[in-house]
Design a protein that fits this description.
The chain is an alpha/beta fold. It folds into two domains: 2-376, Alpha-Beta Barrel (TIM Barrel), CATH 3.20.20.30; 387-438, no CATH class. Helices cover 51% and strands 12% of the residues. The protein has helices spanning 19-37, 59-67, 89-102, 117-122, 130-146, 184-193, 205-222, 246-270, 280-292, 304-316, 333-352, 355-376, 394-403, 411-438; strands at residues 2-7, 41-44, 74-81, 107-112, 153-154, 159-160, 177-181, 196-199, 234-242, 300-302, 321-325. The strands form two sheets. It has an eight-stranded parallel barrel, surrounded by eight helices. α6 (184-193) links the parallel β7 (177-181) and β8 (196-199). It is globular, with a radius of gyration of 24 Å.
């Protein structure tokens, strides 16, 4: 089994001067430590406007910084928001490829749609449309990463003419795809589309087994890949904190884990929020004792042996990677580092031993099913050279409209030149879009 660490960049109130600076610098130090200790992946979220719960609005910047302080740990977007209101698919493709290049091919491309009204409303993404926008944008982003040139697209969420989207990633045709899953139905969707499942719900091992069984059964029988390659993996998040003394482990890490769940519920389920003013930490402290007594509140928080037992159950359930939630609430930097070191010294090795062989056996058993899934996918035609639309540079267009030698083009000249260029390319681009639309996987 593999192990990841997970960052929301949580920052409960009150916010003192320099708190965000310390938060990010401590996180980079923790990632550097995790890399030295042999952890497999660091996962970084993308959230917007979620006071206290997540101050991670630019994961591409954080992961790029982490890439230059590490050598082996993989860099996971957990997740990149895909509806075009958040991020244009071409910009996502460019960012993923660039991160893959600067990291030497270590990117995990996690995706999702979000479900908080603060984010959806802030970027004008309709709740009813977000799932289809995620799917459309992800499919086209994969084409942008894999195809040379990208043939263009005319869709419901966005349209774009043929362009060569650069740079291209180290991992071809694209880095491994993942999708955020909060319930069994999304797990099933991930399997149908050939995407790794990032399960951010805290499930018990018995429930995890059912989710894993559903995922791999559908992957074998029904998968039609949305991307150009299949990533058959399930990763599940677990609360985490380890210390030689069980009570000290709970004292250090349980409040942070409980706050994580409470703040998530505040922003996504039950809360009323005044941006920049609501104090979630104070509200949490009023109910903390009740939350601590709920079943399943401790997860992988305890002594090395207690954590080992929890992880063994997850391994037996068939989970491929456990993502440890170590940065939550007011968990202290030095305690997080101590826990990572103790976990690596006394627990992690026995689970990682033989992981390469386990993964090879799994892929060998899945190979006929993955081949069958790829054969069900409709091929995306490459454009013949003669079908690639020609773009005439703006300066030349202005000159051909009579603006040569007159200095900078006026707004009127530019508009006329653009209109003329649009007319020249319309027929060719329409043909390209029709080809691309007709070849989309799933019709």
């Amino acid at each position: 089994m593999k192990f990841g660490i997970f960052y929301e960049h949580q920052l409960p109130r009150p916010w003192g001067e320099g708190a965000e600076l310390k938060l990010f610098q401590d996180a980079l130090t923790q990632v550097e430590l995790a890399d030295r200790l042999g952890f497999d992946c660091v996962w970084e979220v993308e959230h917007h406007f979620l006071d206290e719960y997540s101050h991670s609005s630019a994961p591409e910047v954080f992961l790029a910084a982490a890439s230059q302080r590490t050598r082996n740990i993989r860099l996971g977007h957990g997740i990149r928001l895909m509806p075009p209101g958040y991020n244009h698919p071409a910009r996502v493709a460019e960012g993923i490829a660039t991160l893959d290049l600067v990291s030497g091919g270590r990117v995990e491309f996690g995706t999702g749609e979000s479900s908080s009204l603060a984010e959806l409303g802030g970027f004008g993404v309709e709740v009813s449309a977000k799932r289809e926008q995620w799917r459309e944008a992800l499919e086209q982003c994969c084409h942008m990463l894999a195809l040379d040139p990208y043939p263009g697209h005319e869709g419901e969420a966005f349209s774009m003419p043929a362009r060569n989207v650069l740079p291209k990633p180290v991992q071809r045709p694209h880095p491994p795809l993942w999708v955020a899953c909060s319930n069994r139905e999304t797990i099933k969707l991930a399997a149908r589309l050939g995407i790794g499942a990032l399960t951010f719900s805290f499930v018990e091992p018995a429930e995890a087994r059912q989710w894993v069984d559903d995922y791999y059964r559908i992957l074998r029988e029904e998968c039609v890949p949305i991307g150009h390659a299949i990533n058959p993996n399930i990763a599940m998040v677990s609360g985490f904190g380890v210390h030689a003394d069980a009570e000290e482990a709970l004292r250090r890490f349980l409040p942070g884990f409980l706050f994580f769940g409470y703040a998530l519920g505040h922003h996504y389920i039950f809360g009323e929020h005044v941006p920049g003013r609501t104090d979630i930490w104070s509200a949490f402290k009023q109910v903390e004792a009740d939350l601590a007594n709920q079943p399943g509140s401790r997860r992988a928080i305890g002594t090395p042996e207690q954590v080992r037992r929890h992880l063994r159950e997850m391994q037996d359930a068939g989970v491929d990677q456990v993502i440890l939630l170590q940065q939550a609430g007011n968990n202290r930097h030095e305690h997080i580092c101590e826990a990572l070191e103790l976990f690596a010294a006394e627990v992690m090795g026995e689970f990682q031993a033989g992981e390469a062989e386990r993964e090879a056996r799994k892929l060998e058993a899945l190979a006929p099913h993955l081949d069958a899934a790829m054969s069900r996918r409709q091929p995306i035609p490459q454009l013949a050279d003669e079908d690639i639309p020609t773009m005439v540079a703006l300066g030349r267009q202005v000159a051909e409209q009579g603006g040569a030698g007159q200095g900078d083009a006026s707004a009127g000249d530019t508009a006329a030149a653009n209109e003329n260029a649009d007319e020249k390319n319309t027929a060719a681009e329409d043909s390209v879009w029709k080809q691309a639309e007709g070849a989309r996987p799933g019709g």
